[in-house]
Amino acid sequence: MKYDVVVMGSINMDTVIYVDKFPSHGDNVVTKGSQILAGGKGANQAVTVAKQGVNHAFIGAVGTDGAANQIIEVLENKGVDVEHIIRKDHSQTGSSVAIVDKKGENTIFGMLAVNMEIAAEDIRKVFEDIEGTVFLLQLETSKASVLEALKIAKSKGMFIILDPAPEGLFFEEALEFADIVTPNRMETKRITGVDVTDVSSGKNAARIIANKGVKHVIVKLGALGSIYLNANTDEYTFVESLKVETVNTVGAGDTFAGVLASELSKNRKDIISAIHLATKAAAIKVSRAGGQDSIPSSEELKKL
Q1: Which H/E stretch holds residue 175?
Q2: Smallest Cα–Cα separation from 283: which of 222, 231, 207, 217?
Q3: What is the pTM of this model?
Q4: CB of 223 closer than 8 Å to CB of 189
Q5: How many whole angstroms separate alpha carbon 216 and alpha carbon 139?
Q6: Would you say residue 32 has pLDDT above 90?
Q7: Which residue, among 191, 120, 111, 190, has the nearest Cα to 150 in the 3D structure?
Q8: Are 158 and 4 contacting, i.e. CB atoms less than 8 angstroms apart?
Q9: What is the pLDDT of residues 68-119, one digit of tens each?
């Protein structure tokens, strides 16, 4: 079947803990509250795409534990196509703990579990019935699954968006297949060695990534906005962020990626307009508490 956007990535059951200040080693901290939510970068991106009303497929994996059916039900209720989710016998569904401080900044501890058990043959099998316009993925599944998916997507002529997150799982070979790479500051430093602190250093880092063979680079600068480099024309574009009161930054990058992919599935040539809309979507996401429910829909974005 032909889809506008094919998303591949992690599926986790997330625990979000709210604190005033991130604890130091040995601290005993009283929290301000907590939530248990369906998450994972892949699932968040798939929910974002679904909320844009785009015909899509989602490739991921769950185990056979109690969390598996719960997460699939949650994703299905949010409009995600769950037909291609892989179930691994005797495996544990991924999970993570996110600590969010009063400024909305987050630190995440993840156990990827079954996400790292996806094999190349699993990917080959699931792609037998999938064609697509845009392929969006990050790095929270096994290296073998990422490489196989990238190779197949490229062979099928898909436009590939690589969100190189988390930075600890980045490997340079993935860049060979990407049409667009969208690193944040930490991921950019992992890829380039450049500590991105402003627009100028963001441009320098984008150039280094482009020199590795990537035609379109979007370096996300957090609250500042983002730098887009079109290596085909050697042009830089700075897209300023929207100023909002930050409540929770968890999932902002996933929201950005999902809206970007959705827009480029309609018109892959107008990348700048897609970045502007993705920036608005991420701003809305960080201004709200909660997980996937706080991801804006296409209707909300049109009203903004």
Answers
A1: none
A2: 222
A3: 0.91
A4: no
A5: 19
A6: no
A7: 120
A8: no
A9: 999 999 999 999 999 999 999 989 999 888 898 888 888 888 788 999 999 9
pLDDT digit string (tens) for 135-153? 999 999 999 999 999 999 9
**Cα 169 off chain centre by:** 13
Q: Rounded to an integer, what is the distance from CA 237 to the centroid of its chain?
A: 22
Taking each helix axis as running N to C, give the angle between helix 271-286 and helix 252-266, from 0 to 180 degrees, rounded to the nearest 10: 150
Q: Higher model confidence: residue 281 or residue 27?
A: 281
Amino acid making up residue 38: A
Q: How many residues does the chain have?
A: 304
Rounded CA separation 29/71 (Å) = 29
Angle between helical axes of 199-210 and 185-192 (0-180°, round to 10): 50
3-state class of 34 per DSSP? strand
Omega within 30 of 0 (cis) for the link into 166? yes
Return all residues near 222 (Cβ < 8 A) that are at least 6 apart.
184, 185, 241
Q: Are 253 and 163 in contact (CB under 8 A)?
A: yes
H-only helix segments in the chain: 41-51, 66-77, 120-126, 143-155, 185-192, 199-210, 252-266, 271-286, 298-303
Q: Tell me how far apart the alpha carbons of residues 45 and 302 are, in angstroms, rounded to a whole number.
A: 19
Cβ count near 226 (within 10 Å) = 26
Could you give the CA distance from residue 82 to residue 121 in angstroms, rounded to a whole number?
A: 19
What is the Cα–Cα distance from 14 to 241, expressed in whole angstroms?
A: 27
Asked if residue 57 lies in contact with residue 42, where contact means CB atoms within 8 angstroms, the answer is no
